[in-house]
Design goal:
This protein has 2 domains: 3-103, Tyrosine recombinase, N-terminal domain (DNA polymerase, domain 1, Orthogonal Bundle), CATH 1.10.150.130; 119-299, hpI Integrase, Chain A (Orthogonal Bundle), CATH 1.10.443.10. The termini are far apart. The mean pLDDT is 91. The chain is globular, with a radius of gyration of 23 Å. The protein contains 13 helices and 5 strands. α1 (3-15) packs antiparallel against α2 (21-39) and α11 packs across α12 (282-288). With 309 residues, the protein is mainly alpha-helical.
Amino acid sequence: MKYEQWLNEWLQLYVKPTVKRRTFERYLDIARIHIIPQLGKCDLNCITSYHLQNHINYLLMKGNTKNGRGLSVNYVNSIITLIQASLKIANKTGCSKKFVGDSVRRPKGTEKEITCFSAEEQHEIEKLALNNKKEKFKGIIICLYTGLRIGELLALEWGDIDFSNGLITINKTCYDGTENGFRVRKTETPKTKSSRRLIPCPTQLLQLLRNMKNATDSKYVINDKGNPIYIRSYQRSFELLLKKAKIQHKGFHSLRHTFATRAIECGMDIKTLSEILGHKNATVTLNRYAHSMLAHKREMMNKVGQLLK
């Protein structure tokens, strides 16, 4: 059996029933673009660890089909995971004589550099967002004071906000997809259990949300004339806002990093911050924002130092 045939069968029989539609579509794209062209014609029993390692090295050097450059370490590791999982089931079901996936050496990745806005930049962004005639820009304020991801923000409905107790429930996210060749916005539950969470809403933000609710008939907190907003469209609006403010471009996700950084500067403990951000555990938060904690650590150490007579 050719690996292409097995890979497609494995995806349909073993993977599709166990994952969300968005994840399955991503796996199909990975297989079609980054696995089948190089390994698909190989006989399942003829694939060796040399073939796999050679393919991985190619992906790291020239795997990007758009520009001919290498793919990121994290993305290559996701491709490796897919290959290993398919080959393991092939061996267990008797479709291949042996499993060679465990001999592959995974490339080591580094934590992405965290970019956030300075306090001065944040103040300027807030001023422009609050004074803009379009209500949708107030979503930027919500992210700056809750740490929501863009998909969580645009999927947020008024029913998710408990005004009496000042709580925001995060139980869904959205993404841009395609259906029959047309762009559509799709909504799904968050990928991990930790991403489904309750966020206490700051009093000042709660008042802003009340005013926004009174000014709209849409079920979505952030909308465009009552209609849901595409992620790419909202990212573009944010880019234009930064340009107007003459602030160096940073991705929308930097708002989340800015919230985390300000929270640490205000003295929020890592465990609490981790739960608000929806991280799997506090270690993830600690590793990601260790650099942001340096000033806080210095302040705490100086307080301890004041005991020295």
